[in-house]
Design brief:
With 148 residues, the protein is α+β, with helices and mostly antiparallel strands. Helices cover 33% and strands 36% of the residues. Strands 1-2-3-4-5-7-6 form a seven-stranded mixed sheet. It comes from Planococcus rifietoensis.
C-alpha cells in the first residue's frame, strides 16, 4: 500500500496536486493563512521537487508523505491525506512507515501551530516541540523533532 512514487511522472504529479490542494486549504483555514505555497503549486513545480515521495495507494492515491534526508536527519516536507479519507489512519501509517524505513538519527517536521490534529499525531510518535516561528504577520508554525 505504501510505496515510493515518482513525482516526475505527470499523472502522479497531477494526483499529488489533486489531493494536496484541498488538504492544504483545510490547513489554511485552521491557520487563518491562505498563502500556503502548496495550494498553488503547479504540476511542473511538483515534478521538479527534489523531495522523495511515499504514496499510500489503495486503488488510487489517498495520501502521501515527502521528505529530504541529509546528514542523518530526515526532514518531513509534506504529509497530505485526501480530505475524503481523513480519520482512516492514513497519516499515521505514512509517518510510521517513514520512521520504520529510514535509519536516521533525527526526524524533523513543521506544521501550522493551529493544526492541532497534526501536533497530536507527531507527538504520539514521540516528536517534541522544538520552536515556533512566524511565517506571516500573526501566523506561526511549530517545528517538531524526534531524536532516535
Amino acid at each position: 500500500m505504501i510505496t515510493e512514487i515518482d513525482q516526475t511522472d505527470e499523472k502522479i504529479a497531477r494526483d499529488i496536486q489533486s489531493i494536496q490542494r484541498p488538504a492544504y486549504r483545510i490547513e489554511a483555514e485552521l491557520m487563518g493563512f491562505h498563502d500556503i505555497p502548496h495550494i498553488s503549486e503547479t504540476i511542473y513545480e511538483i515534478q521538479q521537487s527534489e523531495e522523495t515521495f511515499l504514496g499510500y495507494q489503495d486503488g488510487y492515491l489517498k495520501g502521501f508523505i515527502s521528505y529530504k534526508e541529509e546528514n542523518g536527519v530526515v526532514d518531513i516536507y509534506r504529509l497530505v491525506v485526501d480530505p475524503l479519507q481523513f480519520r482512516q489512519g492514513i497519516a499515521r501509517s505514512l509517518v510510521d512507515h517513514l520512521l520504520q524505513q529510514k535509519n536516521a538519527a533525527e526526524f524533523i517536521v513543521s506544521t501550522g501551530t493551529a493544526n492541532v490534529p497534526a501536533h497530536k499525531l507527531y507527538e504520539s510518535f514521540g516528536f517534541r516541540e522544538e520552536e515556533t516561528f512566524e511565517v506571516a504577520p500573526g501566523v506561526t508554525c511549530t517545528q517538531f523533532r524526534l531524536v532516535v
